[in-house]
Amino acid sequence: MAAAQDQPFTHLRVASGWSMKHGASHPLELVERAASLGQPALGLTDRDGVYGAVKFVLACQKVGISPILGVDLAFSGLLTSSGIPTQRGVARTPARGGAFVDARLPRVSFLAQGAAGWAQVCRLVSAAHTERANPVLTWEKIEEVMTGNPAIVVLLGPDSLIGSALIHKREQQACTELARWKSLFGSEQLRMELISHRANDRDPRAVSRSTALAARMLRCAVDEHITPVLTNAVRHARPEQGRVVDVLDAARRLVMLDERHLDRVNSNGHLASSQHMAEIAHEIADRAAVGSTQLVANRLLAVTDELARSCVLDLQGDLGLGQAHLPEAPAGVNQVLRQRCEAGLSRRGFTRGDRVVTERLDVELGVIEHLGFASYFLTVADIVEMIRGLGIRVAARGSGAGSLVNHLLDVSGVDPIAHGLLFERFLSPLRVQLPDIDLDVESARRLEIYQHIFDKYGAQRVACVAMTDT
Amino acid sequence: MRVEVIEVQCREGVPVQFCRPASRARASRRYRVRAVLGFWVEGTAWWRSKAVRAVLGRESHESIDTTPELDRTIWRVEARAGEQAQVGVYDLVRDGDGAWSLARAAD
Which residue in B has a C-alpha nearest to residue A259's C-alpha? Predict the structure, then answer.
């Protein structure tokens, strides 16, 4: 019995600071804390996106623990008593700023299993973001994405529709809701997520983090043959950072700091020790009274550990860390690039047969072919041509101007030979990194360009990237 | 709210007995806990603490260095002050620094 108490716990539901205005701690801080608590793995389920994923897995690699990745998404798809999903009307009342900026939609988390699972998590995130600035999943979007075998595990917790049904003791509604998830993902891929911050179940604001609700959800899981999982819905690494979480809640809702506006009920939602989580498991099992407290608590910890193990990701094999994702290239793409460049020679006023120019071009094309980046250069050239076609001004900036290939493709207007610009500053076989061709465009028409890029290449091939570090 | 400071005896972290000090109205009394009805943890309104008010200039500067406490634990217990006494429901509050007080007495 003591063995289960001493077993390291794996936190599967953790929000980092990459959960905008929600999480308080940097991924590295969370990872270091988990490692210092002797926990062998850690999950990251940020809200609305996977922005912290790379920093997180690199931190895991550095510290030497196993990474688990997922996402926590808003979900809109209330089931009515007739079983037909309805859209929940968002109370848009600017007078009560809180509701206006935060609809408090139900939330569901997804954990990736293997490379296929990671792909599905990313597709779910994309599907949720089809409406700008309002990421929400619906049944329709999930059905659209989940065409193959599910390689993700769905965590239905106190903040899901099942949780809110059970808060109001509507067991039947919870079962109806659960049936829908079962039919889409299969019971195997579903988990009833139990969370207890030892909050007051008589306080409507705190009940979702109470042991009483966790126990009710455990009983429902047993009745419905759904495996439970214990999490701590972590929003901060250390207890005292709870204050930051409160400020984030108030800032997100654009309201004053006051109890009634805060989601956090106490400091237990931190990255807690394995001992603490074992105690919580024990308390939930005791309250649920679905069998011997000790056995049920041990089982809860064991199934949580099993799930964690099945979700550990391999940095290279599953996530492709360090590999460049290039545009699909037809056969002979290097030949196409050479022809395009040679065609550019006379247009750019070079004399055919000029040895300096020919040698420089051969060197550059050789490096590009060696690194396999031809399709990338052609795609950038395509985009520049498209932008010019729209009558929008565009110019390359930075190290990209050091490339004759860029000049001949009309990406850069600067002749690198005449100005003595180095290609090696831009691209070198010694520096296996995706070359960065910076384009400046008219800022007022940037969104127009985005739309054309989406239209031309398809939303599934385009990503918006922001550098927050610089 | 008037805070009544009490002494609490615990066994394995669970209150079993508490003592209310003497007041003008009555002598000190010892209560035996008959049952724990529940316990929960509440965050405190740290933004109303002395330290925060000091930062805002609404409290003397010396309070800046005090740390606002994080949480307090409330034990709701059934207890009575003697074999013959009536059973009452009490909320025993344990502050972050370990000090106990009586939040509510329905006796």
Answer: B45
Q: Please, what is the Cα angle at A448 between A442 and A452, to 5 degrees?
A: 120
Q: Which residue of A has its CA nearest to B38?
A: A200
Residue A68 pairs in a beta bridge with A43
- Comparing CB atoms, the residue among B40, B43, B67 nearest residue A242 is B43
Per-residue pLDDT of chain A (470 residues; tens, 9 = 90+): 444 557 999 999 999 999 999 999 999 999 999 999 999 999 999 999 999 999 999 999 999 999 999 999 999 975 444 444 444 444 444 444 555 567 789 999 999 999 999 999 999 999 998 876 789 999 999 999 998 899 999 999 999 999 999 999 999 999 999 999 999 999 999 999 999 999 999 999 999 999 999 999 999 999 999 999 999 999 999 999 999 999 999 999 999 999 888 999 999 999 999 999 999 999 999 999 999 999 999 999 999 999 999 999 999 999 998 887 788 888 899 999 999 999 999 999 998 789 999 999 999 999 999 989 999 999 999 999 999 999 999 999 989 999 999 999 999 999 999 999 999 989 988 876 778 899 999 999 999 999 999 999 987 788 888 777 65
Q: State the best of A195, A198, A207, A238 to mutate against chain B, taking most chain B CBs within 10 Å.
A: A198
Which part of chain A has CATH 3.20.20.140?
Answer: 2-311
Answer CATH for A2-311 from 3.20.20.140, 1.10.340.30, 3.40.640.10, 1.20.1250.20: 3.20.20.140
A210, B40: Cβ pair inside 8 Å? yes
Q: How far apart are CA A162 and CA A78, in angstroms?
A: 10
Determine the Cα angle at A81 with ends A80 and A83, to 5°: 65
- Buried-exposed string A116-134: b where 16+ CB fall within 10 A, e elsewhere: ebbbbbbbbbbbbbeeeee
In chain B, where the domains are located: 4-106
Q: Which residues in chain A are contacts of B47 at CB distance < 8 A? A: 246, 257
Q: For residue A299, which phi and psi values (nearest 5 degrees)?
A: -65, -40
For residue A264, give how far its alpha carbon lies from the nearest alpha carbon of chain B (Å). 8
A contacts of B70 (beta carbons < 8 Å)? 239-240, 242, 266-267
